[in-house]
Amino acid sequence: MDLEALTNEIVACRACPRLVEWRERVGQEKRAAFRTDTYWAKPVPGFGDPNARIVIVGLAPAAHGGNRTGRVFTGDRSGDFLFASMYRVGLANQPESAHVDDGLQLKDAYVAAAVRCAPPANKPTPEERDACMPYLVRELTLLRQTRVVVVLGAFGYAAAWTALKEATLPDVVFPRARPRFAHGCVVHLGRLAIVGSYHPSQQNTFTGKLTPEMLDDVFARALHLASATTSPIA
Fold it and tell me: How many CA atoms are closer than 13 Å to the CA of 172, on its beta-carbon side?
């Protein structure tokens, strides 16, 4: 199994009836601003550098973002905020991502989501989260150079924690209890580290709960931690 094969498996998934119905209905009804677009309306795979040392885990595709474009965090305000920060710190070659053919390339970074289908009200159920979990486990297993997992929000943190434990990667050691999520938190797990950030949702960015400087600081910390060791996981 490689990332390409896993991507094909994710895109074909129809495991969660509520999510399948919602993503496809959104793709038919559309938003007025995108009425001429052909929506992707399928599960959205991860995207980025297969040799990435930094993996970013978000919540789920936006109904009119990734569910429309077919690429995670692409075509919505959250993605604009995220990729602008990644560009400023050198993890992306351009600050915007509007569609899959816009030339965006990630360097030393890979972006994934805990849930691969757009959920109603951006709230997947625990059962939907658990159904998607094996995809994240396998991604983290295949991304063998990973040194830092940047989690976007408490949902991404919980999902990444569970996926890393289930991946049973060598030299990754967990404390007895999961530390509380907080913006800027750093949890060391042996040769891996988790770094927390508030999710770049409009609810957080429009209110100033998450500023560009705050997100830049998270990625700067992630880059520093990723440079602490470069030997691959066996």
Answer: 24
Question: How far is Cα 15 from Cα 45, in angstroms, rounded to an integer?
Answer: 15
Q: Roughly how many angstroms between the first and final C-alpha of the chain, as a whole number?
A: 16
Residues sharing a CB contact under 8 Å with residue 8, sequence separation 6 or more, in sequence order: none
Assigned token pair, 10: 């994710």
- Could you report the per-residue pLDDT of 92-115, keeping only the tens digit for each? 999 999 999 999 999 999 999 999
- CATH value of 3-226 in 3.40.50.150, 3.40.470.10, 3.40.50.2300, 1.10.10.10: 3.40.470.10
Tens-place pLDDT, residues 114-170 = 999 999 999 999 999 999 999 999 999 999 999 999 999 999 999 999 999 999 899
Judged against a pLDDT cut of 70, whether residue 229 lies above it is answered with no
Nearest to 202, CA basis, from 82, 55, 56, 106: 82
Largest CA distance in the chain: 52
What are the angstrom distances between the C-alpha of 152 and each of 23, 73, 142?
A: 22, 12, 21
> pTM score, two decimals?
0.95
Domain segments of the chain as ranges = 3-226
